[in-house]
Amino acid sequence: MSRLSRRQTLALGTAALVAPSVARAQDAFPSKTIRIVVPFAAGSATDITARGLGAKLTELTKQVMIIDNKPGAGGQLGAQTVAAAPADGYTLLMGTNSTNAANPSLYKKLAYDPAKDFAPIARVVMGVNVLVVNNDVPAKTTAELIAYAKANPGKLNYAEASSSQRLSAEQFNQLANVKIERVPYKSSPEAVRDVIAGQVQVMFPDLPQGLTQIRADKVRGLGVTGATRTKVAPDLPALAEAVPGYELTYWLAVFAPAATPAPVQQKLFDLVAEAMKDEKTGQTMTQGRMEVAVLGLAPFGEFVKAETAKWAKMVKDAGIEPE
Fold first, then answer.
1. What distance in Å separates the CA atoms of residue 72 and residue 161, rounded to the nearest whole number?
2. 20, 79, 189, 282 - which has most CB atoms within 10 Å?
3. Is the peptide bond before 30 cis (omega within 30 degrees of 0)?
4. Rounded to an integer, what distance in angstroms lies between the CA atom of residue 158 and that of residue 174?
5. Whether 50 contacts 254, CB under 8 Å
6. H helices of 177-320, where?
7. Is there a contact between 202 and 131 (Cβ–Cβ < 8 Å)?
8. How many CB atoms neighbour CB 115 within 10 A?
9. Distance between CA atoms of residues 237 and 240, nearest Å
10. For the whole model, what pTM was predicted?
11. Is residue 67 within a helix (H) or strand (E), and if so which, with residue range?
């Protein structure tokens, strides 16, 4: 037998031994509790989405899904936790455009590398933020808010607890030619409470959270950040109607540590995709205030690359210096 044929025989034999073991590992996954780390506080859109998805995954796998909220530093704390976790598929990140696309442009030094430390599993939903103001602010429309900000420099501050909230406000400042000062918060619910109390006047929370407060008459909603009105709240104008060129959307997605085996990544995506087919699960995850938008594995990875470039441009155009 020639050397070449021996190598071929050895390779074929090795493949025959490895393939069944890989298949068995894939078939057996998951066999224990999965932790889904949420890098933002309970009550945020990210948290609501993770809990809705986790409930359906528990039903499908018969395994417990623990939702672990680790808010802080624009989502860095939670993302870092997953980046450092064992790459076995049992610790996942409910990531966002903030943690996995915008943060590299907003911070000089991250405790994790979004491009190198994560395997993109599946985008699950997309949504918009909403411009809200304290009820005592004398502006009933976006145009009136712009006029008030110009006539009263230094009187308005905006609260933010994520990159998308911050970019929503800074893009508004840039395109509307106003200066509303930033007040950073650790969590979105905390920021919303201060807007309701009047300690801060303006905020761009995610629509699920903002709409709850608007409908309770605790804040006044002026418009959504998408390019057009959303069917979820058609009575709210798009900010672009008053500020031409304005647009910002966000997305929420499942990530695993980068070295997670490909068969496990595939099984995770298959489970998420199966969960998202259930209309009730989608409704629970979005509260009817976001859109189900599943995209998985390689195509999602390309989407994240494009989004990282897009958010880098937005940060630069808004004149934001990395912290």
1. 8
2. 79
3. yes
4. 14
5. no
6. 188-197, 207-215, 262-276, 279-286, 297-317
7. yes
8. 14
9. 8
10. 0.83
11. strand 65-69
Looking at residue 196, its amino acid is: I
Query: DSSP class of residue 155?
Result: S
Main-chain dihedrals φ then ψ at residue 295, nearest 5 degrees: -150, 130
The first and second tokens of residue 157, run together, are 């501050």
- pLDDT one digit per residue (tens) for the chain, 323 residues: 444 445 455 445 554 554 455 455 556 899 999 999 999 989 888 999 999 999 999 999 999 999 999 998 889 999 999 999 999 999 999 999 999 999 999 999 999 999 999 999 999 999 999 999 999 999 999 999 999 999 999 999 999 998 899 999 999 999 999 999 999 998 889 999 999 999 999 999 999 899 999 999 999 999 999 999 998 899 999 999 999 999 999 999 999 999 999 999 999 999 999 999 999 999 999 988 899 999 999 999 999 999 999 999 999 988 888 88
127: left (phi over 0), alpha (psi -120 to 50) or beta: beta
**Alpha-carbon gap, residue 269 to 248, rounded angstroms:** 27
Q: Going along 97-224, which residue ranges are E strands?
A: 118-128, 130-134, 157-160, 181-184, 202-203, 219-224
Contact 319, 104 (CB under 8 A): no
d(CA 166, CA 158): 9
- The amino acid sitting at 273 is A
d(CA 222, CA 130): 7
**CB-based contact 177:203 (threshold 8 Å):** no
* H or E segment and range at residue 138: none
Q: Please list the residues that pair with 296 across neighbouring strands.
A: 122
308, 98 in Cβ contact below 8 A? no
Rounded Cα distance, 35 and 68, in Å: 7
For 260, the token pair is 């997670």
Q: Which residues of 210-235 are buried (b: 16+ CB within 10 A; e: fewer)?
A: bbbbbeeebbbbbbbbbeebbebbee
